[in-house]
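Protein modeling request. Please complete all fields; requests missing the sequence field cannot be processed.
Requester role: graduate student
Desired output: 3D structure, token encoding
Chains: 1
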Amino acid sequence: MAPLPHGTEVLTRVERHSGERRLAPGTIGRVVRARDGGYDVHFVGVGEVWFAASELETRKSGQRAFAQRREAAWAALRPCIVLEAVVGSRAWGLAGEGSDLDTRGAFALPLSWSAGLVDPPTDLVSADGSHTFWELEKTVRQALRADPNTLELLFVPSVRATDELGTWLLEARDTFVSRAIFGSFGRYALSQLNKLEQAQRLSEHRDVVLDWLRAEALTFDACAERLTKLSGRDDAKTYLKQLYRSLSDQGLTASNDFEALRAYAREGGRRPPEARELRPKNAYNLLRLIALATGWLRDGAPTFAATGAFRERLLAIKSGAVPLAEVLAEAEAMTPALEAARDASRLPEAPDDERANVLVRRMRLELARRWVHQVEGPFGQHAAPPPSWEHPC
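Delivered output (393 residues):
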């Protein structure tokens, strides 16, 4: 049976104790890794607990079938990878002792996989989520949008082609570089930092809201009005909805509504500090994106590895030692340089769509040639059988 991918939501079938916490049957968790015939599962407010595979079931129907399709695609198309690189913190010079080894790349589909009615996979992902590969056309389309992850793959120093198709893609990578980096890297990072800051600010009132609901039978409107006066913001109703929706998503309440939030409060519930939407440590990567975009727009070439004082600052942010408000202030202070780099940049205004189109056509024709002539290798003579209608990948 295919292993459940990292991040799959599961329900426990048996009771388990972790310290003083009891995990009742039906408790919701997320798979962290497959190990020893079972899984390490993360539970909010508890941490990681190991369960045998037979002691878990997927929370949503279809997740098991999805895992099987993903595993089948991974096994069949792994030889079809044409480009790969080490990315993430190791490429940025920010890896620690326990940092994962993240690999990203591109793969090609044998002609027989794209000739039928069954939609072929456009992603290959390892069960632990550390290795991700995109189909060639998807890679090109993402690069034309100046997607940061895709451009990182194409330009990071560790990138290497494992097939002539990958070499062609690397030779044409300047096709995708334009001043659109300003928005997809810099402005995107600023918007995400603002969302993090807003989530953190609202979370400061979480326990206050729960105390109110524990002590009084407040209605939704009355609670929102009181929160508005306390926070000075006009989005209190939205926050309350986000709060009870998030609790419901994590299986901490019986339903997705305000009454369930009140019941949670009366039972003494507290939202754990490691709530999914509060991840200030991720802010270091957003600050890095702004610096990367500024340098790329200004110099015409990217520098991925952080060095010197900037590297030390990013590591401090990554460890959680810097308040998010400070990170946001630093990001805002970097904005004038980002905008100046865009205005003075020698990069083209937009990517070269026509050149990209020619590239994709050339790669498709090459794949067809290898299949028709049954050339030695994974795209011809040794191509994996395409998925059937009954068992698509």
